[in-house]
Amino acid sequence: MPLSIRRDDLLPGRNFIGRWCEARQGRRFDVADPATDTVFASVPDSGEDDARAALDAAHAAFPAWRAMPAKQRAQVLKRWNDLIVANQEDLGRLISREQGKPLAEGRGEVAYAASYVEWFAEEATRANGDVIAAPVAGRRMFALKEPVGVVAAITPWNFPAAMIARKIAPALAAGCTVVCKPAEDTPLTSLALIKLAEEAGVPPGVLNIVTASRERAAEVVDVWLDDPRVRKISFTGSTPVGKHLARRSADTLKKLSLELGGNAPFIVFDDADLDAAVDGLMVAKFRNGGQTCVSPNRVFVQAGAHDAFVDKLAARVAALKVGPAGDEGSQIGPMINARAVDKIERHVHDAVERGARVVVGGQRLAAVGRNYFAPTLLTGADATMACACEETFGPVVPVTRFESEDEVIAAANSTPFGLAAYFYSSDVRRIWRVAEALEAGLVGINEGALAAEAAPFGGVKESGYGREGSVHGLDDYMHLKYLCQGQL
Ligand code: ADP
User: Fold this and answer.
1) FRET pair for 144, CA 20 to 30 Å: which of 216, 238, 253, 312?
2) Annotated catalytic residue, options 105, 118, 259, 462
3) Measured between alpha carbons, how far is 202 from 72 in angstroms, rounded to an integer?
């Protein structure tokens, strides 16, 4: 069994609230392998009591953790990083097993997750404030950076390790304590990471995790939203849930980082290097089967390049190998669940009904399994189609032909979302014009793989606010305190 793991203790199968424990009511829910829909594990189905217990623990642990010198907190995070790296193979298999991405991508995600832990271990020691040049005599003025307090982290299923790392590492580095609820489809990777954090020496109470089924997600999270002791919510997920969190946390005015859905444009101008553009699109679009919030959702190709680009792309899409994550050759795994495949199918049918042409794929791959969809290339897409308005979150490339730069900028920006955008051009003036005109938090210029721990990740418009990673990433977990000393 290629996805079996060597260290059984990386599957604690319980909540961690200062210690490993069952949900108070004793309920559990099943975790299924998306490749086969078979149940292979279960975890606690937590409720209000568990959420409150986790918060009590995080609140009690906060004073000592914030008081610990940053260098010591950094050492704990470095050990956590080392343990994640040392267990890369097991963690990669676990990700692939519960999430479905090909094993090479599962391993890659572990390295990516660790890079954030290492980065924030280093940043922890540089959370310096300012000595301010006082504008009046007899005073000294300072700005200190302080941890905000207890952070609630709510994560999605598409990157079960990276999303946890990207939230928890900066929170711990800043001196915050954490309560966390991972996505119901992929709780096991998150629990394994917490197990390694415990092993790294994160003190009891500093980092707590409770798992819950979809039905109980709101029950758990509402406890944290309503409680004034939670000072910050860090969420990655859908825009409707993000808006709900913002509304419900308004009464206690929590700080929020929301990384929500995108609707990324990918633009290929006539002057682009078409082979590079095809390579970039393949990387950006088909990573994790298209189930990433920075996946290109709308592809615009200028008229002069359109046919040549579509021909090159069709050959590459048709050659993609679909199969279970454990087959080393697989490039596209199963979608996360049946709901996801239904949505992809609806988008393709809607596009075809409205005049799009299927060049490659276009249908489910029932022979491979219930949750598989064929890598699909559509041409003749337009703005009226569901695939242009909603994130498809699957292996579907809808191509729209355009004539002018102004027209494509207007089309690219005509969405409430603004997470990633990509374009390919070799004209240096156009590169700056277009990069500045696109309404997005991240822009790939002749590049399809953008994310890096050293870069700020986050959106504009309804894709949310806050930035993860980079030298700015700690700021989301800290506030500035101004000190003014007089009578000097
Ligand atoms: P997706 O549709 O990709 O699953 P969601 O936004 O629904 O994205 O889920 C992201 C995270 O938000 C998951 O951990 C999920 O359990 C959680 N979640 C879903 N609904 C709610 C809710 N009403 N309140 C709080 N958290 C929720």
Assistant:
1) 253
2) 259
3) 11
Nearest C-alpha to atom 13 of ligand 1 is from which residue? 183
54's CB contacts (< 8 A; 6+ apart) are 15, 17, 179, 208, 209, 210
pLDDT > 80? residue 276: yes
| Res. 3 pLDDT band, cuts 50 70 90 | confident
Asked if residue 154 has its Cβ within 6 Å of ligand 1, the reply is: yes
Dist. CA 246 → ligand 1 center (Å):
13
pLDDT in tens, 366-402: 999 999 999 999 999 999 999 999 999 999 999 999 9
**Cα 378 to chain center, whole Å?**
27
Buried b vs exposed e over 51-66: b needs ≥16 C-beta within 10 Å?
Answer: bbbbbbbbbebbeebb
Integer Cα distance of 178 and 253 in angstroms: 18
Q: 259 catalytic, yes or no?
A: yes
Let me know if 180 is a catalytic residue: no
Distance 61 CA to ligand 1 centre (A): 27
